[in-house]
Structure formats: C-alpha cells, structure tokens
Amino acid sequence: MNYYAIKDKESFRQFQREHPDFIIPLIYDSIGRNILKNNKQVLILMINNILQTHFTEDEIILKDGRIKKERYREKQRECDVFVEVGEKVINIEINKKKTNSMDRKNMSYIGDMLKNYYEAELCQINLNDFDIFKRGKEIYLSKMKEEESGLDRFEDLKIYDVSIGVFKEKCYTDSRRYDEDFVTLMQIFESHSRRGIEQKIGTSILLREVYEMQKKLNNEDFILERFPDDVFHEMEKKELKKEGIEQGIEQEKAEVIKTLLKKNMTPEEIADLLDYDIGKIREVKNSCK
C-alpha cells in the first residue's frame, strides 16, 4: 500500500476514496484502544482468553490511564487501556513495532502499577504486531525471577506478550483454550483490508460490532488528523535509515579506495577492480592530499 500521497486530513480522505478496501487496522493504537475502552464485551473476551480467567463484563472497571508526572517538564504518559477486574489491575498496550523506547515505556507502566497498587494482582498485556521472543508462540508469560533460585521477585506481577501474527499462521482447534471470536479478533487485528475482515468475521455479532466501530473511527476527525502524521513519521524514519545505510556503504568504499591508493594502485586500476566510478575514486584521492 503506497502511503506517499497522504499529506494531511484532506489528502487522506482522497486516499480513502481511491482505495475503498483500505481501513486503518486495530493495531493502530488510537483505533484499538477506543474499541477496547468502549466495548466491554470485547475487552473481557480478550482478558479471559489471554489470562485464562472467567470474569464478566460487570466486574470490569475502567481506570484513568494517565501516569502522574514526577517532574514538571516530563511528557504526559497514558496507558492504552487500564482496568481493574476482580483482584487484578491490568494494563493493556498495543505495540506496532519493537523498539527500546517501547520496552522502556511499557516497563515504566509496570513500575507505576507496583508503586500504586500494593495489594492487587498486577498484569500487563502487550498486544504485539511481532513475535517478541521469536519462538512461534502465540502468548508468552513473563515474570521477574531471581536468577539462581528461580523464585519470583514479585509473585503478583505477570506480563503477557501476545504475538498477533502467530494467530494467523496457526490453525486453532482447541476451543477449551481460546474462544473462536478471540482467535478471529487476533487474526484481523492488523488487517487493513475491509474485504479480508468481512470474510473473517462471518456471522459473529460481536466482531461485526467491532468492525462497525472500526469503520466509524476511520472517519473521525481526530483519526484523520493523526494518521497522516504517523505515516509521515514512519516514512521519515525509513528514509533516514536508508540514507544512513547508503552513507555507511560510501564511507566503507572510500576506506577501501584509500587502502588501495596507498598500495600505489592507479585510479584506473581501482575502478576496474571495484567496478566503481573513476570520478569518485579521484575525489577520494584528492581528499587524501
């Protein structure tokens, strides 16, 4: 999908008209968190399947996910979805890409829960558009343990990393472990194809509700304004990375050329050996004088 035509809200609307099958996926956090916060049935479906619990919608209490700032100039942080259910306090994060800043941010939320909820059972659920440990598991459970004894540092803290893509790769027949709607939800979570989503959800009433909410959010101003910025940010990072790689390659070539010049090879000989532009070789030679 070519996003380069997207410049602002209006050009994004034009992009949507020209690509009627396109829909911003649930893995885009502004879409996913809005749906989870506004549909308790979907939220409890996800929690029960990931944690293997049996909570009801009536037990869920949505909490304020804003983290209290410790310093005046600190940027305001907010959890994607923060809930209390039974004796558990649960933070749900939607992660499109694995980065060091993402890991640190998610760990900071855990630190905040440890600081403010002494008696509760603490859980963090990371909905990842990647397989964080690259072992082909759909859900990883992590705890903080002492290395030699294997004893839990915090008995009431659990981290669940959900590999969304793995659900698409496997065929699940064990209904005792996962509900069918949950598996399908994971399979469509990063889909940007309306046709693909409609085919997957079939006759499911709950997933139809999710899809209708997703379509509505795709036309909301705050999404139309934020999505182009996010697209530009991702493209800018790719361009900078590409530029950095190209600069690195040119620098490596320059170092090789300098070495060959020191061995008294002529620019013509180096150009023939490396299949490289003789003008650039002469530039390197002149820079060494």
Strand content: 5-15%
| Helix-strand pattern | HHHEEEEEHEEEHHHHHHH
Q: Uncertain regions: pLDDT < 50 for 5+ in a row? A: 235-245
Radius of gyration: 25 Å
Overall form: extended
The N- to C-terminal Cα distance equals 49 Å
Main β sheet profile: 6 strands, mixed
Oligomeric state of this protein: single chain
Number of helices: 11
Task: Please provide a written account of the structure.
The protein has helices at residues 9-18, 29-38, 40-51, 100-116, 164-169, 180-188, 194-201, 205-217, 221-262, 267-274, 278-287, and strands at 60-62, 66-67, 77-78, 81-85, 88-95, 121-128, 139-142, 157-163. The chain is α/β, with parallel strands linked by helices and 289 residues long. It has 2 domains: 1-7 and 221-289, no CATH class; 24-217, no CATH class. A 6-stranded mixed β-sheet has the order 1-4-5-6-8-7, with helices on both faces. The chain has a two-stranded antiparallel ribbon with strand order 2-3. The two termini are 49 Å apart.
